[in-house]
Amino acid sequence: MTASTIGTPPLLRASLHHEGRSFAPWIVLPTALAVSSVIAYPLLFPDAAERAAFATTIGSNPALGLIFGPAYDLATVDGFVAWRSLALGGFIAALGAILIVVKAARGQEDSGQAELLAAGVLGRAARLSTALIMAGVCSIAIGILAGLATSLCGGAWGSSFLLGAGFTVTGWMFGAIAAVSAQVGSDARAATTIAVSLLGVLFVLRGFLFSVDAPTWTTWVNPLGWIQETRPATGDHWWPLLIGVAFAVVVGAAAFALQRARDFGQGLIPARPGPARGRIGSPLALAIRLNRAPIVAWTVAFVGLGVIFGYFTRSVRGLLTANPAMAQIFASGAASPADLVSAFVTTILGLVGIIASVAGVQIVNRIRTEELDDRAEAVLATGVSRPRYFGAVTGVALVVPAALVTVAGLVVGVFAATADLGLGFGDVFLQSIATIPAVWAVVGIAVAVIGARPRVRPAIWLGVLASFVLTILGPSFKLPDWALGFSPFHHVPDVSAAQPDWWGLVWVGVVVVLLVALGFAGFRRRDIP
C-alpha cells in the first residue's frame, strides 16, 4: 500500500456499511431482467411456430434493435435471454457504477464530508480507490447473482455466466469513466452528467450502427460493442471481456493521474463565477437559471437523437423489405410497408418521450435539492409564495420535455419528408405533439412525490421505469392491454391511422392535472427542511 492509498481499507469498510444497501436496485434490476426472460419465454412461446412468429415480429420493428441490439437467436431460451438482457442489463449496471463512483469520489467533496475524512490518516488517492472498489464490488455482485439465478431458473450455465460477466465488465468500464469525469467536472452533478451522457451516446450509437448494418469495424470502436460481441448462447466468446477489463484498468489509472493534477473540491473544468450583481428577479427566472446548463445539454442531445432516428427512419422501409419473413407478409397483403413505418415512427417517438421525461423529472428533483441545501428557505423568506415558487419549477419541468420531444419530432419529420415512406412532415410532427401528454404524466408523478411526500424521493423515477418496462418490454411478454395501459405512452394514438382514438390522451390529461394538483396541495402544507 502506497502513501497515497493509506486508509483505504477502513474507509472501504465504513463506506460499504453505509452505502451497501443502495447497491440493491442495481443488482436486482439486471438480475430480474434476465430471470424474468428465462422463466417467461417457455410459457409465452411454447412451440416452434409461436417462436418463429415472435422472431418475425421483432424483425418488423427495427426500433427494438436500437435498444436491445442484434437478435442472433430467438428460437431458444438462452438466445432470447441474451437478446433481451445483455445490452439493457449492461446499461443498468453501468449507470449504477457511475452513480456509486461519483457519489463517493466527488459527492463527499461537495458535501464537506471529504474534509472531515482528510483530517484523519487518509491518503489522497484513498477516496477514489474506495469509490472504484465499491463500484467493482457492486458490478461483481450483479454478474454473480444474475448468472447464478438465470442458470438455476433454466438457463444454460455457460451462457448465463457469460451474460453476468458482461454486466460486470460493463460496470467496471463505466465506473472507470466516472472516475475520470469526477476529476473533470466542476462538481458531482457535472461529473454525473458527463459520464451518463457518454453512456447514453455510446448506447444509442451501438444500437443505431447495428440497425443500419454498419461495417463490422464500427463495433470495435465502442466499448459496449465489445460486450455485444461476447454473444452469449450463440458464440459464447469470453475474450472480448479482456478488452473491457484492459480498458477499465487504463482509464482508471488515468483517473488517478488526473486527480493529482486538480485542486481539492475543484474540477479540471472550473465552474464559471456568477455575476457581481444578481439579475434574477422572479422564481421563473431562477428556475430557468438553475437548470440552464442541463436544458442546453438536453437540447443538443435531442437534436442528435432526431438526426439518428430520422436517418434510421429513412432506411427502415428498405430494412423491412430486405427481411425475407416480412417480404412474405407484404406479399400476402397482411400488412403494408407504410403501416409498419408508421408503427415504427410511433414507437421511436414514444422512446423519445420516455427519454425526455427524464429531463423533466431531473428539473422537479432540483426542488428537493434546493431544500436540502438550505437555499429554498431563503427564497421563500422573501415575498415569493410557495405556490409561485413551486409553480415556476413545475412549469419549466413540463415545458422543457415538451420542447425536447417537439425538437426531435421536427428533425425526424424533415428526414421522413425527404423519403418515400408514405408519411409526411405533418404526420411525424403531429405524432410528436400527441406524445407530449404522456410525457407530462410521467413528470406529474415526480411533481406529486416532491410536492406531497419528498421523503420517498426515489419514487419520482417510478413513472420513467414503469413507462419503459411496459412500453418497450411489455409487448415481448405478451402483457394484456389493461396492464400495458398503466403506461401513459400506451394511450398515444397513431395519428396517421384512418380514425385515431384520442380519448386515451384525454384521460391521460386528466391524470396529469390531478397529479400536479396533488403536488401543489402537498407543497403548500408540508414543512420545508
Looking at this protein, list some descriptive labels:
globular; mainly alpha; 73% helix; 529 residues
How many strand units?
0
Average residue pLDDT: 85
Major β-sheet, in short?
none
Q: Based on Cα principal axes, name the global outline.
A: globular
Please give the share of residues in helix.
Answer: over 70%
H/E series = HHHHHHHHHHHHHHHHHHHHH
Tell me the fraction of residues in β-strands, as a range: under 5%
Indicate the radius of gyration in whole angstroms.
24 Å
Q: Poorly predicted ranges (pLDDT <50, ≥5 residues)?
A: 326-334
Number of helices: 21
Structural class, from helix and strand content? mainly alpha
What would your notes on this structure say?
This protein is mostly helical and 529 residues long. Helix content is 73%, strand content 0%. The chain has 21 helices and no strands. It has helices at 8-19, 24-44, 48-59, 63-68, 77-111, 113-118, 126-152, 157-184, 188-211, 223-228, 240-261, 283-290, 292-322, 324-332, 337-372, 376-380, 386-417, 425-452, 462-473, 481-484, 503-525. It is globular, with a radius of gyration of 24 Å. The model is unreliable at 326-334 (pLDDT under 50).
